[in-house]
What does this fold into?
Amino acid sequence: MSESVRDIALKARQAARKVMNLDSRAKDAALRAIAAGLRAAKAELQAENLKDLSGAKANGLSAAMIDRLTLSDKVVEGMARALEEIAELPDPVGRINGMSRRPNGLMVGRMRIPLGVVAMIYESRPNVTSDAAGLCLKSGNAVILRGGSEAFNSNIAIVKVIKRVLVEQAISEDAVCFIPVTDRAAVNELLKLEDLIDVVIPRGGEGLIRAVSENSRIPVLKHYNGICHIYVDRDADFEKAYKICLNAKVQRPGTCNAMETLLVDAAVAESFLPEMIRRFKASGVEIRGCERTRAIVPDITPATDSDWPAEFLELILAVKVVDSLEEAVDHIETYSSNHTESIITENYTRAMAFLNQVDSSSVMVNASTRLADGGEYGLGAEVGISTSKLHAYGPMGIEGLTAEKFVCFGDGQIRE
Amino acid sequence: MSESVRDIALKARQAARKVMNLDSRAKDAALRAIAAGLRAAKAELQAENLKDLSGAKANGLSAAMIDRLTLSDKVVEGMARALEEIAELPDPVGRINGMSRRPNGLMVGRMRIPLGVVAMIYESRPNVTSDAAGLCLKSGNAVILRGGSEAFNSNIAIVKVIKRVLVEQAISEDAVCFIPVTDRAAVNELLKLEDLIDVVIPRGGEGLIRAVSENSRIPVLKHYNGICHIYVDRDADFEKAYKICLNAKVQRPGTCNAMETLLVDAAVAESFLPEMIRRFKASGVEIRGCERTRAIVPDITPATDSDWPAEFLELILAVKVVDSLEEAVDHIETYSSNHTESIITENYTRAMAFLNQVDSSSVMVNASTRLADGGEYGLGAEVGISTSKLHAYGPMGIEGLTAEKFVCFGDGQIRE
It folds into this structure.
């Protein structure tokens, strides 16, 4: 290896000082130029991608994995468009909040600043490479990228284009660094550099996230799985409930904000469940019901203990009848992954109780869990969805890549 | 040991669910009742404190340490007053920010919620026990306290009073838990309970904080040391500079926001330094100067390489002459602990450049670093001063013990 992981991180640290002071115009011009550069380099990117694809086929990767790895024309265009969209977002850096005058005349406020150096550790999809670089550049951070081995050649090619454009734009090419080795040891080395790196963001399967969390001395922004619940209350509007529950389960079942368990108030279970389950089945959903559900709709699979904490990510739904809002909240507290939960009700008091008592990162009334998303919430491009409460909780946009320092404008104030 | 660390944490987790839903009136009434309870139990607290004090004397602790350990009448009254002041703060929990209507009609905002279970690991001063319990209760968190062995009997006595009052107030006594063993193994066990504890806050010396950071699987809110700088620019108002620099060094030199290094613009070093150093010496400050400083004021100790990264915490000051704002910022970037830095200048452009380029948690213009404090900033009681950027940066009040979840009010919205 020509360059150590520490050497790369040192370069990123030096670049971070320059990137933090770039004005928005310079950053946005660079983002647009990178987009143009990726479009222009499409043939080059696809040639390198072919190497990864043949490797993947030789290693017997699944068709779904190979699909995610492919830099089709559409994917390259999507990468470029994503960067242009990031350029259009307002710059969070330099924004001052809550400026107020203290009794001694000192003006005190909080200014948004970049975090510094972000390490992004991710798997498969090569488009994460340009997304992460764009999000970090926009928020004034230097980034150290460490992609998966399957996309090694594609990632190198994308980073080459980005660095070329950065140099053309008179921005330090070390603002976007890449770890060009794919062994675990390099990651573990990276995770010990707490003097050089401010935050680690793992993106990928639960195994990756756990491995990073357990080995890191650097704070980790975690985005675990989504075990989302909908609770249909006795005062639910059934038409809203049918529509929302169906959407939450079938519109894109492989996503982390899809519903995995449906909880139904016993008071309406008999009137609600037969039609609801008929619609689910018509959409190809396999239902796994508790005993009380099966007493109402007999022709379904019995749910087992392993179904309640399951993230199915496919057309399977666990269904449970509960006696009260309290039992629903208890079930959620026990099995939820703190991602997103929704109550369907026309009852004001129970809507507010659910909203206040459930402490998942998104809590909804009469809306589909599929709406828990940075784009839907108006945050712009999404860095991820945090399910731990520190720093960011829920969909996280570029503001999540910044911190706030205190700024004080004085006129000679001292401590009395 | 009758109860394992895990058992205690499990109880705290269960209590957290109840405490998070207490309304402000109940929490504030409990805080005032604990204050009254501590005053009423003064004799009991002081009797237990005497055991710690005789142990401390037997172990040869310094007079300063013994002073910090003593539950004098004044200290007990201070503990009670601090709780009453916390009761008067506005409740951060339940506050909804940034509620807006999305294009599909969904109302989306962010609601402040407690973090859940906070573990506080601290040394010596027994008043931290009631402070931490009060701050966590106010912010709707359960807390697990683990104090130092020197204050063991005092801490147990304080916790006993708190639990007695909580029960009287019909609040779960497990809202405030205490680890009644003083060996390191108990702390290390605690630091592995990431399924039960949301955040760890170490308060104490650098050794404690490092040990916690290195062993914790749970996110840690760190409050390291303060190596604060003041830069006197060529356009400084000398009278302001004399007053501010003297205050920053001598008003309370043992605090983390006291100035440790003074940087002086070469353009004014000859006119500024002789009178400034005369005033420092008159206040008993030992000056350690760079070569250029000593060329102007010969009669001072030469600074060595170990003085620039030093947190003296006493009447010693390192002084360095620099050629420009850039050199000052570079020096700060190299040696600062990201706590607080201040520029003294009447020049608008350099004031703003300093404010923007220095990324310490507090950056000031024409004000004493001693003002970097939760109370001075209007945050109310201070949990600590964070010098790492994640979650909280700078003085941290009870808002730092909360997170924000997304709340969505819908009317049947689904993902299209």
Residues 5-224+395-408 of chain B form a domain with the Aldehyde Dehydrogenase; Chain A, domain 1 fold (CATH 3.40.605.10). The longest strand of chain B covers residues 402-413. Chain B has two domains: 5-224+395-408, 228-371. The longest helix of chain B spans residues 24-40.
